Structure formats: structure tokens, C-alpha cells
Amino acid sequence: MENLTKNKENVQEKNGKKKYGEELGSALKGNWEYADFIKSLEKNWKASKETAIKLIDGWHWRDVARYLSKFDWLDSEVAYKLIDSREWRDVVENIDKFEWLKKDKQLAIKLIDLSLVDEWKQSLIYVVSNISEFEWLDKEVANKLIDSGSTSPIAYYSNLFVWLDKEIVLKLIKTMPIHDTRYLAKNITNFKWLDKEVAENLIEIWEWWAVVEYIDEFEWINKEEVEILIENWKKREKERKEKEAKSKKK
């Protein structure tokens, strides 16, 4: 403790406020005279990225988030450590504080994964609610959203994603709420590699009109085949309804 105090006094006298904050953080190492350091931040001392990482690794991530403005040279490494520590909101609300950090694919995945790990959904809700603010969204992000049960952003905002294909369409059809299928059908041209299988699945969920209207977007199927598929589907639906009506009478 005596050496630590002496080190603190020497640093303060020699280098001034900012350097004091940085070197004190380094001097603390395993000793963690934590209360003294926090008091220094409250007095407008400055600290560095390295000190922030030491605090986070020492289970004091909440204080890094609380005194975020007191730290210099923070970057994406610190941001992701804070997110892993559940302090994601302070990161997204102060994103300009972190170098090399943007609202992009990597950050979206990090926030979605947080919700998948412990079913803590607030970070997922943030991504879904602010999906238009994220850049470079692609098939990987779409799969993450589907696995988390959040299919609506893909159906509504498929134009914000790249490399969406047949696989994503089929997964959406199987998992999304029925009231969202109309938006998927409406934006079907934003998806690549559509084929007969996709057409059949759209017809089965009553979105046959999209296949007819966008027939040129589908490979390995022509207009005549689509008409046959729709006709067969209508027959099945008629038989199903007749069967239901008979069962109700019984």
C-alpha cells in the first residue's frame, strides 16, 4: 500500500492529471485500490483504454460504463467487452466514443448473440427496432434474426440486406407469423436463387399472386407450370374446407 501511494504521488506530481489516471491504472494491477481510482475519475482525471480493460476484466465494468467520458482512446475492443458484460446500452448510446466501431453487421451480431446466450431480449429488441441504422447486413445476420425468433425485420426490410437467397425465404415461410407473409411476398424480388420449390411454398401460404406477378424472378419454372400448381392448390384447399365442414356437422 505504501509503494502504491508513493507511486500515485509521484505520477501526479510529474505528469499531471491525465497521465496520473493512466499510470495509476497500470500501477494498480493486482492490488486494485479501486476506491481511490474511482475518486480520481470523479475529479475529472482521465484514464486510458488499457485501464478500462483492467477495470472490466476485474469485474468493474459498470464503472467504466458510468464514467465513459473519462476514458480516452476507447475502441471496438473495449466496446465488445462492455457488451459481453451486459453494458451494451451505454455502448450504442455513445457509439462515437469508440474508435473503429459502427452500427454494422458485426455489432448487430454481437447484440443478437447476447440475447441468445441468456434469453435477455433487450439487446435483440434494440437491433430489431433500429434495423435501418445498421450497415452491411447480410445472410448471416438474417439467419441470426430468424434463430432468435425475429423474422419481421427481414420480411419488411429485406432491401437492407445483401445475399438473401432461397434458403432464407424457405426458413421465413416455415417460421414467420402468418400476418407477415404478405410482406415477404411483396418483397420477394429482394431474394436470389428463387425456384420451383420457393414458388410451391408461396402458393401454399396463399401468396400465389407473388409467383404470378414476379414469375421472371423464378428459375426452372414457367407460367404454365405455375398455373398448374395454383390450380392443384385450389383443389386441395377446396377438399380441405369440405372435409372440415363435414367434421363440424358430425
List the helices and strands and how they pair.
Layout: H1 2-28, H2 34-42, H3 49-57, H4 61-66, H5 76-84, H6 88-93, H7 105-118, H8 122-129, E1 137-138, H9 139-147, H10 152-156, E2 161-162, H11 166-175, H12 181-186, H13 196-204, H14 208-213, H15 223-249
Parallel strand pairs: 1-2
Q: Name the strands of the widest sheet in spatial order.
A: 1-2
Largest sheet: 2 strands, parallel
Radius of gyration: 28 Å
pLDDT < 50 stretches: 11-25, 27-32
How many individual helices? Answer: 15
Helical coverage, percent range: 55-70%
Strand content: under 5%
Estimate the mean pLDDT confidence: 86
Order of SSEs, N→C?
A: HHHHHHHHEHHEHHHHH
Total strands: 2
How far apart lie the N and C ends? 87 Å
Q: Can you describe what's shown?
A:
The protein has 250 residues and is mainly α. It is 64% helix and 2% strand. It has helices at residues 2-28, 34-42, 49-57, 61-66, 76-84, 88-93, 105-118, 122-129, 139-147, 152-156, 166-175, 181-186, 196-204, 208-213, 223-249, and strands at 137-138, 161-162. It has a two-stranded parallel sheet with strand order 1-2. Helix 1 packs across helix 2 and helix 1 packs across helix 3 (49-57). The longest helix is centred in the first third of the chain and has 27 residues, at 2-28. 29% of the residues are buried.
Quick synopsis:
The protein is built from 15 helices and two strands. The chain has 250 residues and is mainly α.
Task: Describe this protein with a few key phrases.
single chain; 250 residues; mainly alpha; two-stranded parallel sheet; 2 strands; elongated
